[in-house]
Design a protein that fits this description.
The chain is of the alpha+beta class and about 140 residues long. It has a single domain, classed as Alpha-Beta Complex (endopeptidase fold (from Nostoc punctiforme)). Strands 1-6-2-3-4-5 form a six-stranded antiparallel β-sheet, covered by helices on one side. A hairpin with a 4-residue loop joins β2 and β3. α1 packs antiparallel against α2. It starts with 6 loop residues before the first helix and ends with a strand.
Length: about 140
């Protein structure tokens, strides 16, 4: 998977366009946010096989299980391997890379922001930022 030459400006416009988009399972959740950003940067949609397959937490869990995974983390491992996206040490993650972040009861998938110091996540109030230091795993897009 190769980023487009103008991926930075494309990602910037994408983030601005969606900065107030609220979290909604199956439409704008952590996985679909990151996969949409990857599509914007590369033209490849890692979520193409499960977009539209769920609309709630319950059906999201069923979709993850149907994909052969037991958790978001396993799903990310499967999808990144399928698309040749390599895991990298957290300290090596850069702008536009993928990051797993712990949350209250599980984990969330996010994207390293263009400043390289924050992870951007989908939330109920729109895009949310946390420090990159909270990442537990990362992949280079």
């Amino acid at each position: 998977m190769t980023r487009k030459p103008d991926w930075q400006s494309l990602l910037h416009a994408f983030l601005l366009e969606h900065q107030s988009e609220p979290f909604r399972y199956g439409r704008w959740d952590c996985c679909l946010f990151v996969c949409s950003a990857i599509y914007t940067m590369t033209g490849v949609d890692p979520a193409s096989s499960f977009r539209g397959a769920y609309s709630s937490l319950r059906t999201a869990r069923l979709a993850i299980a149907a994909y052969g995974s037991g958790s978001v983390a396993e799903l990310v491992e499967t999808i990144t391997a399928k698309h040749g996206i390599q895991a990298i040490p957290v300290v090596c993650a850069q702008r536009g890379d993928i990051a797993l972040v712990p949350n209250r009861s599980d984990i969330s998938l996010g994207l390293i922001g263009l400043n390289g110091r924050e992870i951007i996540l989908a939330s109920a109030r729109g895009l949310w930022k946390v420090p990159t230091s909270v990442a537990i795993r990362t992949w280079h897009v």
